[in-house]
Structures are given as C-alpha cells and as structure tokens.
Specification:
The chain has helices spanning 15-29, 43-46, 65-78, 83-108, 143-148, 152-162, 173-182, 200-206, 215-222, 234-237, 239-252, 268-277, 294-298, 314-321, 335-338, 353-365, 367-380, 386-398, and strands at residues 3-8, 33-40, 58-63, 115-118, 134-139, 167-170, 191-193, 225-229, 258-262, 284-288, 302-305, 326-329, 346-348. By secondary structure, the protein is an alpha/beta fold. The chain has two domains: 3-198 and 385-398, Rossmann fold (3-Layer(aba) Sandwich); 200-382, Rossmann fold (3-Layer(aba) Sandwich).
C-alpha cells in the first residue's frame, strides 16, 4: 500500500475544497493510505466540508482556530487596504516556519510517505523537505493574473520553489501554457494538465431534492430568477458588474425575474449596502451559503459567472450539469475553454455591464436558444467525468 500526505488550506465551502473531496475518495478507493493536513482551522461553522472527509483518512489542522481566524482576518482586510497584506504575508511566513518545526516535520520524518500532494498554489514548499517522497502541486488560478502583480524578487522565489516539485498540475490547458510562458526553464514533461473531477450523477440527484428546503426557500425557488453561486469577494468575483447589469434590465426592460446571490464572503455587506442604495433589496437577494446549491442552479433561468479571474471555475461546470443556461465572463482561465468559445453558453468581456445585460435579455426572450445551448453543454461534460481525472492522477503517481 502506498502512502500519501495530502495538503489542503481549508475545509470551507469552495470549488477547490469540493474537488479535493473527490480526489480523496478516489485515492481511498484505489487502495492508497492517505493522511490529510489542513492549514487553517476555521471552527465549527467554518469547516463546512469537514464531514465529507472519508472516514478512512486521518486528518489534522496545522494552525489552531483562534490563530487561523486572526490570520484570515488580515486576508479579508487586505482586499480593501493593501497594507494589511504585508501583515498577512508576514504572519503566514512566521507561523508556517513555527508549525513546520513543531508539527509538520514530525509527520514527514522517517520517509513514511511515498507521495505528497499540495492542493494549493501558494506553495507550502516545506513539504518538499522529505527527500524520499515524490512531490506534486496543484495550481488552481490564472498564472498570468497571480504572477502579473508580483515583483521580480517574488517571481524568482516562486519559480525556485516550483522546481522543488516533481510535478506541477494545472487544471486548464490555457493555465498550463501560461505557466510554461512564465517559467520556460521548467521541464514541460513535469507540467501536467488534469481537469477537476466531477460526480455528475450526485449533482443531478441533489438538483431535484427539495425536501430539505423550508417553506420560505421553496417559495423563493418557485419564483423566476437568475442566480450565481460564489464566494462573495469583489476583488475576484466582480459581482458589481452582475448587479449593475441586472439593474439595467430591471429598470429598462421591466423584467420580473429576481437575482439570487448564493454564498458568503468579505464583500457581502458592502454589496448589500450597494443594493439597498439602489432600492433593489426586494429584487436582488443575498441568500447566504447553501449546502445544496444545485437545486438553486437547476431552477434558475440563467446562471452567471462574472469573475475577473479564475482557474477552472468549478461552479460553471456544476451549473452546466444542472442543465441551466450559463453566461460567463471571458476571464482567464477556464470559462472560454469550458464553454468552447461560446458554443455551450454565452461569454462577455470582463466588467462589461452592457454586454452582460444584452446576453441576459436575449437568452430570456429566446427559449429555443437557451435550450439548444443547454443540450450541447450537457453532452460536453464527458471530458470532466471523474474517472478520467482520477486516472490522470494515478498515472502521475505511478509514473
């Protein structure tokens, strides 16, 4: 039996975290022994997906709850004032060093692990100190966006850390090409592209389950609406563009559909204030986090992703699996690749309010147009079936 050490940053609700659960289940089913280390303990309410960790897996949090929340607070403040990022990075470096020497290195001693998988692109490279293991890292975001704002010294440091890994996995072909352009000295054979795995049957089943909804939720579900499911972080998700596009439709076209924003995050209160300032609080509803977002996707008139940047947006593929018409920004990376340049859904330029509102109203008026793209999108999902992604992972591990 081969031993794997798997690293995750959080177990909160998010695309990265949901995908990691699929990989953990797949590794157990294949006969691997897996230990899981999770960087930040966000407490009972924050560790939302902890209950989905396979029972065969031993897991531990590296940083305690109070410290985790303290550090995360700087991350939230840093979205609004960049000065807080200095404190954030300093705290991460200092605490990573401390917990490596007091906790992590004891897990790595004696060459217990055959493989380590770092499922996060911010390089917990201390894991590579175990020279007897094969080390693999996943990159989940646009390389171009992430590295474009880094100073040269940090870029060089990042490149040096990347080279400590035996394999670097990107989750979109466009992202792989970006990485090779950024770091041309990397051996191309070490850079692999593996789409995220998806359990579409489970999604489709959950998309029809209404029994756990309360009466208010069932009433909302019966209304006509557009929706998005997202971490409410304006820095990346640009919900302002979606809100302004909806406002234009509501005031100019007198649409009856509402807009549901499902999720939570640091920008929620400021966006709620924006909506109240526009007197649209009865039309644009912030519904909070939902453990089953699929039923909300399934019943929407359209699903919208308005991000400034992504990696391979899990939620866009989930919406396609729920057979809802999808509209996405052309952000890097993922949406254009997923929607095959607009064949399986509509695309608009990042931040273009007018274009998004035009896409929404056109789709709303033409049911045949919507249904044609939904049908094509559904057929295209075979490339994201979890069996293919899991086999790609096994091939990397056993190479």
């Amino acid at each position: 039996m081969k031993n794997v050490l798997f690293y995750l940053p959080f177990t909160k609700v998010g695309g990265l975290e949901r995908v990691s659960i699929e990989y953990l289940n797949g590794l157990i089913q294949k006969g691997y022994s897996v230990d899981l280390i999770i960087d930040f303990d966000m407490g009972k309410d924050g560790n939302t997906l902890e209950h989905l960790i396979p029972k065969e897996i031993s897991y531990t949090y590296i940083k305690p709850e109070k410290l985790s929340k303290f550090i995360y607070g700087f991350r939230t403040r840093g979205k609004e004032k960049k000065i807080y990022n200095l404190f954030l990075y300093s705290m991460i470096v200092l605490t990573d060093c401390y917990y490596y020497h007091t906790k992590v290195k004891y897990l790595l001693k004696n060459g217990k692990y055959d493989y380590t998988i770092s499922f996060y692109q911010f390089l917990p490279s201390y894991i590579t100190s175990d020279k007897s293991a094969k080390h693999i890292i996943w990159l989940h975001g646009s390389v171009e966006h992430f590295f474009g704002k880094l100073r040269k010294i940090f870029k060089n440091n990042y490149k040096a850390k990347l080279k400590k890994y035996d394999y670097i996995v990107t989750i979109a072909e466009e992202m792989r090409e970006q990485l090779i352009d950024f770091c041309p000295s990397l051996d191309r054979q070490r850079v692999k592209m593996v789409y995220n795995p998806f359990d579409f049957e489970t999604m489709k089943t959950k998309s029809t389950q209404k029994q756990e909804l309360n009466d208010d939720e069932k009433s909302l579900l019966d209304d006509d609406y557009f929706c998005t499911v997202t971490r409410i972080d304006e820095h990346q998700k640009d919900l302002t563009t979606l809100i302004l596009a909806y406002e234009k439709l509501y005031r100019s076209n007198k649409i009856k559909e509402k807009l549901y924003i499902i999720g939570d995050g640091p920008s929620k209160s400021s966006l709620e204030d924006m909506v109240k300032g526009k007197h649209l609080e009865n039309e644009i509803l912030f519904l909070g986090r939902k453990l089953n977002p699929f039923v909300w996707m399934k019943n929407a008139k359209a699903f919208v992703l308005s991000s400034v940047y992504e990696g391979l947006p899990t939620v866009l593929i989930e919406a396609m699996a729920c057979e809802v018409f999808v509209i996405s920004s052309k952000c890097k990376t993922g949406p254009t690749e997923i929607l095959k340049n607009g064949q399986y859904g509509d695309l608009f330029e990042v931040g273009n309010v007018n274009e998004l509102s035009e896409k929404l109203i056109y789709a709303l008026k033409d049911k045949d147009y919507r249904e044609s793209k939904i049908k094509k999108a559904s057929k295209s999902l075979v490339r994201f079936e979890k069996e293919f992604s899991m086999q790609n992972l096994y091939d990397i591990l056993e190479n």
